[in-house]
Amino acid sequence: MRAAIGRAFKSAIIISALAALSGHAAARQAATTPATPAQPSPAASSPATTSAIEHPRGPGLDRPLAPLAHVEVRGKGPVPMILVPGIACDWTVWESFMQRNDARYRMYAVTLPGVGESDPPELREDESWDSMILTLNAERVLARLVSDLALDRPVIVGHGYGGQLAMRLALDYPTKFRAAVSIDGMTRMPGPDPRVRSSLESRKQTITQRILPNTLEVDDETFKSLQFKATLSLVTDDHRARDLALMFNRTDRGMITFYSCESALIDISDRMSGMKVPLLCVAPVSPDQPRWRSEAVWAATLAGSASTTLVYIEPSRSFVMDDQPDALDGFIDLFVRGENIPGSVRSADIRPVAPPVPIPTQP
Predict the structure, then answer these.
(1) What pLDDT shows up at residue 316?
(2) Beta strand pairing status for 308-313 and 105-111?
(3) What is the average pLDDT value for the chain, to the nearest integer?
């Protein structure tokens, strides 16, 4: 089952990469291996799930929902909180956060469909990463979790791609959530010059020229090596990086690529002025780059946002919950309690930053 799912998603990615370069019709006719639809799990086929889902900002998801692979429940605190990991990560990336905040929150850490050994949503022959099937399914199944567990307006916290989902959910379901937190998850993928908003075609070009060559177009050993090198840039501790690399390698390569492509296509910048749910964006400032670069990227992607607080954590790589746990816990605690976060920037003061040196037009 898992191998068939992986082949389906890999084939669909290759087809859509050709389509991005050569035109959809020609690419689909040229494909020699059509995508085989992945069969939904029995849980996903349950009549209690849904058979037709309309999405307010995009195409409908006209199929059963693929369920969350896991929901880990921890904590005795009064505030409900949903924790969403990034691409190819399972719920365990929140393990230490849940241990530290046991008395503050009642936490529900999830593993998204398709991660590890779990089944993703059904993929059809005419669909690929530009259909946003994984993202639409993830958003819907997280919203359903709130209803199924009768959670009282939980805080939704996400890391990376999970942060993108947290912001989308806050925009699409403002009455379901009391607050949202995005840890290193942006409203859109920044380009070489973060002040310039990249076009959809530019983001598709990034996928075909950067993401695909480092995922589907290499052998298994090279892929694992690239994954480990990537983790070294995501977290400071080398031992933690090795643990993350092992976690990433438990998810099918086609699934990692599919999620990565969809993440690269997300752009909710033009919707952020309508944000009604209080949003905290946690921006790590990597020791490998100057602070102005982080400020330029975050200010450009959040300019014009409403109900948003931006706070920088320095030094930290993407996994702030590992690199700066105490600072992260303190900022989220103050934010959830409605108190001011020292050094933070509010919506009205988030403005594009002028870099001190010219930024190249090419990456």
Answers:
(1) 97
(2) unpaired
(3) 82
Q: How far apart, in whole angstroms, are the C-alpha atoms of residue 148 and residue 140?
A: 12
- DSSP 8-state secondary structure symbol assigned to residue 330: H
C-alpha 282/C-alpha 316 separation (Å) is 11
Distance in angstroms (rounded) separating the CA atoms of residues 209 and 63: 31
CA pseudo-torsion sign 234, 95, 341, 349: positive
Q: Are 94 and 169 in contact (CB under 8 A)?
A: no
- 283: tokens are 């921006």
161 by Cβ neighbours in 10 Å (0-12 / 13-18 / 19+) ranks as buried
Which has the closest alpha carbon to 142: 75, 82, 56?
82
Instruction: Specify whether the CB–CB gap between 286 and 294 falls below 8 A.
Output: yes
- Tokens standing for residue 56: 């307010």
- Shortest CA distance to 240 belongs to which of 79, 84, 89? 89
Answer for the pair 221, 253: CB distance below 8 angstroms, yes or no: no
Residue 14 to residues 1, 118, 127, 191, 264: CA-CA distances in angstroms?
20, 22, 11, 24, 16
Cβ neighbors of 101 (< 8 A, separation 6 or more) are 75, 77, 107, 329, 333
DSSP string, 265-287: H-B-GGGGGG--S-EEEEEE--T
More reliable by pLDDT, 332 or 351: 332
Helix, strand or coil, per DSSP, at residue 108: strand
Q: Which two tokens stand for residue 340?
A: 């001011």
Query: What is the C-alpha separation between 349 and 309, in angstroms, rounded?
Result: 10
Residue 60 has pLDDT above 60, yes or no: no
Do the Cβ atoms of 275 and 309 come closer than 8 Å? no
Separation CA 287–CA 281 (nearest Å)? 19
Is residue 358's pLDDT more than 50? yes
State yes or no: cis peptide before 315, omega within 30 of 0: yes
Phi, psi of 66 (to 5 degrees): -80, 125
- CA 182 distance to own-chain centroid: 9
Residues in the chain: 363
Predicted model pTM: 0.84
